[in-house]
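[STRUCTURE TOKENS]
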Amino acid sequence: MDIRYATHPDHVRTLDSDALRREFLIDGLFAADAMTLTYTHVDRVIVGSIMPVKTQVTFPTNVTELTGSDFFLERRELGLINIGGTGTIEADGTTYRLGSRDALYIGRGMRELRFTSDSADHPAKFYFNSTPAHTCYPTRLITVGEAKKLVMGNAESCNRRTIFQYLIPGVVDTCQLVMGLTQLDAGSVWNTMPCHTHERRMEVYFYFHLSDDSTVFHLMGQADETRHIVVRNEQAVISPSWSIHSGVGTQAYAFIWGMAGENQIFADMDHVPMSYLK
């Protein structure tokens, strides 16, 4: 498991591009028949991926060195969204079938997790976030049709997008984890503008549905001292609570957002006037 430590905004002001990428960019997701894990000390979120191709992938049974607990979800919850082909997840003997862009919330206490793809030619790609949990809520499948859907932005501002809210109050109960997926319309390239911070929550952005020759310029840092990271297909960026998090791409794209922290209020944001950005 890759470990990332929390950073102070004054320190981030001094980082060059390579250092920013080492601290905040998550690469190498979706290795065949494997699980990847990145642990950030920002709200102790674990970011991971599972792509079963020819064999079933299971969570490790001995995770003492990873989380200090007897099993992975002993004191954690987990949310995942499938961005690949159809696959199944077996959680303590119950099987859930996920199509493309379906989500699964797995509550605290689940011991055995097994992941399988229907087709090796079009494998499932399970992207997940996991956070500490204080209690156990029921595991639940949320299809893309069951997600709460919001249409925001406009073509004139190049930010017309559809937001699919999966793990959010009113859709499914969680301890603190909030997750969803945003799809930009063709011709729109900006997400989350005007930008904002939320001092009470961190966030992770996972970008996908980009062609090989396309990029997203992910904006971060304090509003008066911004930085950027060039992000390519199926890479993620860790965003501390003090940092803006916005992006502009060379084409329309999609991204999964996951949040953890003090509350679950989606609209709890500290907006930054465009005139204040530097």
Q: What stands out?
A: The radius of gyration is 18 Å.
